[in-house]
Please model this.
Amino acid sequence: MLDPDLFRSVLGRFTTGVTVVTAQDTAGRDHGMTVSSFCSLSLAPPLVLICVEQSAELYSVMQRAEVFAVNVLASDQEMISRRFAEPDAGRFDGLAFTRGITGCALLAGTLASLECAVRARHPGGDHTIIVGEVTAAVARDGRPLLYYRGGYTQMER
Model:
């Protein structure tokens, strides 16, 4: 059996971008969570995937959601990442965002946003892998917020 601390340490050497995934529950309330387990899956059709831990607050919302948005955070958005990483019912209070074509929250000032229709859910250990087909996307200029070895970092020029 692989030592969990060693496994976490090894995985921490992989630098990831930081995203906030947003969705609405069946009552139309906004929910969101910081997610670093995000990647592209296919160009044709345009598919991405996210992984949501089964103990996460967003998990139950994502089990029923038909659409979601991925907000790729810019280097100056560390506080937004921290805000959405902590349990808090008021995550959206005072936060600038617009509604995309899916109705999901698109956070202001992000590096990119993708709106997705859920195409599949797959069990993956203590997470669920959610495949989304991208229905709309926007890219902006800027530098990404990065996560490496348990902390935020900046990209060197």
About this structure: Residues 4-149 form a domain with the Pnp Oxidase; Chain A fold (CATH 2.30.110.10). Residues 61 and 93 are 19 Å apart (CA to CA).
